[in-house]
Every structure is written in structure tokens, then in C-alpha cells.
Inverse folding.
């Protein structure tokens, strides 16, 4: 299309049409699509329930009157043991994803969790973000943690949760080759930044609809001794509240058995 404009002398001048070469336009579109794909792929390295980088378990069908409490970054003295007291008082089972180096430091706590009937999963040896580690380092982290848990409890774990929830293409494939099944979550309670137990409860209530695996922490990734008093208090109230609403609490393996078409990995028995 041609356009006209006035010259300084008041005469009309023809402005040549704007032309964009087809190759240039294709390049713009390709760049935009590439950027969008990269953003999409990058986002899914950290989205807990995403299946993009491999199958994982994060819960049952929404509305199922069953919940799975999970605790990361233990064993941690004294808060893991205090959580065991709360769980025992309510007769509720849970799943603990343990850091290998902490298990080596406190095998007695890991054994207490096992003997109380709770499930234990692998959470890496030094809690690295697996987005940034090599395949060799991933295998080392996983194997050393499984060995530490087996030495402490007499039972090798078959569940795995990536530290920070981070993974990339191939992470879960490697973990599967090591006889571990990835477990993520659908409810994030943000207890690591909570200023009070009520902060944790507000996050949980906002997200729970039924059927979810719930992320909480009995420890911290920087070292043993992280204060989880708010979590302990919140869990006590959370269990009371949702039991009163008719919910049942189960371990992750128990939940996995209840999901249609999902078999327990590697012939493992529920715990």
C-alpha cells in the first residue's frame, strides 16, 4: 500500500511501502517460538506436578478424601522426633524424604522413623539442585543416599524426590534406572519461610481439595538443627482439622496403590 505525506512546500510526496522480507519475518517468528518453548521448558523443571520431564506421583484424583503428608530434609534433631510424637498421637502415617549426609550423621533418627512405620524416600546426599548437576553426580547423590538409608534402617528406599523439586530431561529416567520412583507434590505449605504455624495452615487450607501429596519439612538443606517448631505445631492442627472433615492420611506408597493403573514400582510392598 502506498502512503502520501506533505512536503515542507505543501506538496504531496509518495512514501514507498514498507517491505519485510519473508525470511526476516520467518526469523522473527522462529525466534519468538524458540523463546516461548525455552520459557515453557524451563518452567517445567520446577513445577512440582509437571509430567513433562518424566512420570512422577503427586497425588490422587482431586476430591479424594485422602491426604499424604511428606517431610523433606531430615533427619533433623530434635524436630523429626517431635513430628514422630505428633504422628503417633494421631495414629497417622507419613513419608520422609531424607538427605543422605544427615542420615549418616543421625542414623538413629532414620531408624526411629522406619520403626514407627513411616515410609522413607531418597532426597539426595547433599541436597543439590539437579538441574545443574551431571549425570555422574546425580547417580552418586542417589546411590550414596540409598546406601545410607539402607545401612540405617535395613531397607533400601524405592521413592525419590529431587531437592528443590528441580529436574531436567533425563533426570527421572536415570533415577528409574536406579530402581527409584519419583514423587512430587501438589500442596506447597511454604513452611521454610513461615513466621508462624498459622502461616503454614493458611497455605495448606488454600490448596487442599483432597487427594494431594503435601510438602512440608522436618529439616533444612543447610544443616542439621534447622528450627521446624512451626511445622510441628501446624501439623498437629492440620491433622485434627482434616480428620474432623473425614479425611484419611496415608503414606505415599499406600496412595500409589490406590491410583488406577499405577503399580507399585519394582515389586515393593507398601509401607
Amino acid at each position: 500500500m502506498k502512503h502520501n505525506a506533505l512536503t515542507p512546500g505543501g506538496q504531496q510526496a509518495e512514501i514507498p511501502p514498507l517491505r519485510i522480507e519473508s525470511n526476516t519475518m520467518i526469523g522473527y517468528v522462529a525466534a519468538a517460538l524458540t523463546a516461548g518453548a525455552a520459557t515453557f521448558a524451563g518452567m517445567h523443571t520446577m513445577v512440582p506436578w509437571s509430567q513433562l520431564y518424566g512420570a512422577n506421583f503427586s497425588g490422587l484424583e482431586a476430591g479424594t478424601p485422602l491426604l499424604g503428608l511428606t517431610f523433606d530434609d531430615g533427619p533433623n534433631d530434635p524436630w523429626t522426633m517431635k513430628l514422630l510424637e505428633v504422628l503417633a498421637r494421631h495414629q497417622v502415617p507419613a513419608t520422609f524424604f531424607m538427605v543422605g549426609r544427615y542420615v549418616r550423621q543421625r542414623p538413629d533418627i532414620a531408624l526411629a522413623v522406619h520403626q514407627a512405620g513411616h515410609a522413607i524416600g531418597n532426597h539426595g546426599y547433599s541436597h543439590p539442585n539437579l538441574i545443574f548437576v551431571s549425570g555422574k553426580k546425580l547417580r552418586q547423590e542417589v546411590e550414596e543416599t540409598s546406601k545410607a538409608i539402607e545401612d540405617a534402617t535395613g531397607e533400601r528406599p524405592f521413592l525419590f524426590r529431587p531437592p528443590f523439586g528441580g529436574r531436567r530431561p533425563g533426570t527421572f529416567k536415570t533415577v528409574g534406572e536406579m530402581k527409584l520412583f519419583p514423587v512430587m507434590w501438589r500442596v506447597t505449605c511454604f513452611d521454610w519461610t513461615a513466621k508462624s504455624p498459622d502461616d503454614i495452615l493458611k497455605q495448606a487450607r488454600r490448596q487442599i481439595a483432597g487427594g494431594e501429596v503435601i510438602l512440608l519439612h522436618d529439616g533444612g538443606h543447610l544443616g542439621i538443627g534447622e528450627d521446624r517448631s512451626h511445622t510441628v505445631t501446624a501439623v498437629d492442627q492440620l491433622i485434627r482439622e482434616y480428620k474432623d472433615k473425614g479425611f484419611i492420611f496415608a503414606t505415599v506408597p499406600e496412595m500409589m496403590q490406590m491410583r488406577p493403573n499405577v503399580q507399585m514400582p519394582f515389586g515393593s510392598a507398601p509401607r
